[in-house]
Design goal:
The chain is mostly helical and about 425 residues long. Helix content is about 75%, strand content about 0%. It is built from 20 helices and 2 strands. Strands 1-2 form a two-stranded antiparallel sheet. Helix 2 packs antiparallel against helix 7 and helix 6 packs antiparallel against helix 7.
Length: about 425
């Protein structure tokens, strides 16, 4: 326990939390929050729906990640320098978006949204690489949970916070306030521990593009590792895609869902991430993936029990949501820590960008089938199916002894 608090309450983890806030802040500002602004000024539903395309840079960030591996800004270090550039660009872009008048100049506002998404995805590349390089291998799980929790706080600012400001004042002030928060986040980047003893950047841009792939696929069982990344959260993601329709369909109202599932569930997820990170400080990563993966699958099956109850129960809902979110938070801590441990520090930005993009593929490809499957199976059987579909990923862990992890000495950070 003492090790956990020593690891948690230090400058490094505080800065990772604040960088997580900075990472989470822009996403909703070009997503649901901007769609709310568009809806309020009576733009067409077709235009609102098309805004989903603005977020494509998040799926293709690996395309320019080699550039960020290859070139080193002339200030701070290779990772913090790029983070600072992205944060300054985001702040300026959000200030411009605040006064873009989308009701008069929609094309200009959408172009700014694309710029925000590009800079935000680039910031994610640099922050993920920094977290990998500033933490020792034993700290990756805890660092991941701290960063993810900061990310969720950023989402709250950009969602509920921005909507609240817009409701009581104006949209222009809401977006300007979010831009100001990015300026504040720059202080966390400047004060974050510097990286020393870094691996040198690739000698050429061509090597920065090619070498991360050749290095990774030269490892034994590289395809097995990629299959595991694809499958480990598959059932959990398919279940979460349908939870809100499920709650409404079995009789819970929107206020109950917001109170238990959204607000209460958020704190359970944060607690799960911290518990998982604490365990990962001392325990073997592969064993944690086994244990947390099994708990994750069992917690998904809890929704089947909820579906079979003869009537709605807030107590039952709270129990199921708490158990599922705690287990999901633990699983995410191990999962993100696992992906970080796979990266070679010479190509951290590119390899982590590739792996994290692959992580989002199941939700993208299979999200559209969740409604069809839930209708075909019925709610109780659907969540059992989501639990069972987690098994292939877990069974791949039987092969984990063949997987290769790059050797990474403890980082030197000052």
């Amino acid at each position: 326990m003492r090790l956990f608090f020593v690891s948690l309450l230090n400058r490094k983890m505080l800065c990772l939390f604040l960088l997580g806030v900075s990472s989470g802040l822009p996403l909703l500002l070009v997503g649901s929050t901007f769609k709310a602004w568009m809806t309020e000024i009576h733009l067409s539903l077709a235009a609102v729906g098309a805004m989903a395309l603005v977020q494509l840079p998040y799926s293709f960030k690996f395309l320019w990640a080699p550039f960020m591996d290859r070139y080193v800004p002339p200030f701070l270090d290779r990772r913090r320098g790029w983070i600072l550039i992205c944060q300054l660009g985001l702040a300026l872009a959000l200030f411009a978006l605040a006064f873009s008048s989308p009701e008069k100049r929609l094309g200009y506002a959408v172009a700014l949204c694309v710029l925000v998404a590009f800079l935000s995805a680039s910031q994610d590349v640099a922050i993920d690489a920094y977290r990998r390089e500033v933490l020792a291998d034993s700290e990756q799980g805890l660092g991941a949970s701290i960063a993810v929790n900061g990310y969720r706080v950023g989402l709250l600012f950009a969602g509920a916070g921005a909507l609240g400001i817009a409701h009581f004042h104006r949209w222009e002030l809401a977006y300007a306030a979010m831009g100001a928060l990015l300026l504040v986040a720059m202080l966390a980047t400047i004060l974050a521990p510097a990286l020393k003893g870094q691996a040198p950047p690739p000698a050429t841009l061509e090597r920065a593009v090619v070498a991360p792939f050749t290095e990774f696929f030269s490892r034994p069982a590289a395809l097995e590792v990629l299959a595991f990344i694809f499958l480990f959260k598959l059932g959990d993601q398919m279940a979460s895609d349908m939870l809100t329709p499920f709650y409404l369909n079995i009789g819970y109202d929107k206020a109950q869902i917001a109170g238990v599932s959204k607000v209460f569930g958020l704190w359970a997820t944060i607690a799960g991430g911290l518990i998982g990170g604490m365990i990962l400080l001392k325990a073997n990563l592969v064993k944690c993936l086994w244990a947390f993966g099994i708990l994750q699958a069992l917690s998904t099956a809890g929704f089947s029990w909820l579906a079979l109850l003869p009537s709605t129960s807030l107590t039952a809902l709270a129990l199921v949501v708490t158990f599922e979110n705690i287990c999901g938070g633990m699983g995410t801590a191990a999962y993100v820590g696992f992906m970080a441990s796979l990266t070679d520090k010479r190509f951290t930005a590119t390899q982590y960008a590739i792996l994290s993009s692959l992580m989002s593929v199941p939700r993208t490809l299979l999200g559209s089938t969740s409604g069809i499957l839930s209708q075909y199976f019925g709610w109780a059987s659907y969540f059992v199916f989501c639990s069972v579909i987690a098994l292939p990923g877990l069974l791949l862990l039987l092969r984990a002894k063949r997987w290769t992890f790059p050797k990474s000495p403890a980082p030197s950070a000052v």
